[in-house]
Amino acid sequence: MKRMAIICLVLILLTSQACSTEVANTQVLTLNGQQTNRNSERREVNENLTETNADKEQQVVQTDKTSIKGTKGLIVLSDRYRKNEFVRFYNEDESLWYEFTFFYDDSDGKFDYENENFLPFAFHPDYFSLALKCVGEDKNRYEVIVNEETGLKKFVKKNDPTLKFQTWEDHITKAFAVDFNRNENHLRETPQGKIKTGELPSEVTFHPVKMEGDWLKVSWDVAKQGDNAGSGWIKWKENQKLLIELSYFS
């Protein structure tokens, strides 16, 4: 009888352990399943974030270069710029993003401070020409667009002696020449006035004279064009977009 009792007790213990093991395995499977689901959800979230960021990047890439919406004016090279001075651009946290100087060894025909992400409104290292759209400011900084293709923005310091702020009017009227689509942006006698009649030479160069609102007075060389010389008015902007292209050099 004692042996039978012992055998029964052993069987009960073995059965209990087997059940416990099965329950534990079931719990482990359940936890593993939950963890797998969480990992799957995380992957899905990351994929969605990646797609969202890609969409945003694509939207940035499609920036309209002619748009001046939200711009306050431009940041240009200062008249006080001196030899070997560096022009500097900063990140939001005020760390240095990029710097360059117009004084460099160009014997190899290359710009020594190349930066593929630096594509501002105007930049000609050989001619000391620089212009960036200004889209914001705070007490100590201007926010500028440093890449017209992607819309990338950085900051310059207001007390930087190498740079200065310039209005659109001042910038355009100081340019050497402007170009425009004569078929769509007709040359007029006065702002909103009659379209000027008579053909102009195809190679004529238009020089900016003065600005009135959305209109720009232009003239062309009297000495070179003779009887065809004169002046007229064109629109320089419409719906917050530039209608002209600027030429800075003769």
What count of structural domains? 3
**Most strands sheet:** 6 strands, antiparallel
Strand content: 25-35%
What is the count of helical runs?
A: 3
Shape: globular
How much helical structure, as a percent, in the residues?
25-40%
The helix-and-strand class reads: alpha+beta
N→C terminal distance = 119 Å
Write the H/E string, N to C.
HEEEEEEEEHEEEHEEEE
Task: Walk me through what this model shows.
- The structure is a single chain.
- The protein is α+β, with helices and mostly antiparallel strands.
- It has 3 domains: 1-62; 73-166, no CATH class; 174-247, no CATH class.
- It has 3 helices and 15 strands.
- The protein has helices at 2-61, 168-173, 222-225, and strands at 73-77, 87-90, 96-100, 122-124, 129-137, 141-147, 152-157, 163-166, 177-180, 206-212, 215-220, 230-235, 237-238, 241-242, 244-247.
- Strands 1, 4, 5, 6, 7 and 8 form a 6-stranded antiparallel sheet that branches.
- The longest helix has 60 residues, at 2-61.
- The N and C termini lie far apart (119 Å).
- The relative contact order is 0.12.
- Mean pLDDT is 81; it is low at 1-14 and 18-62.
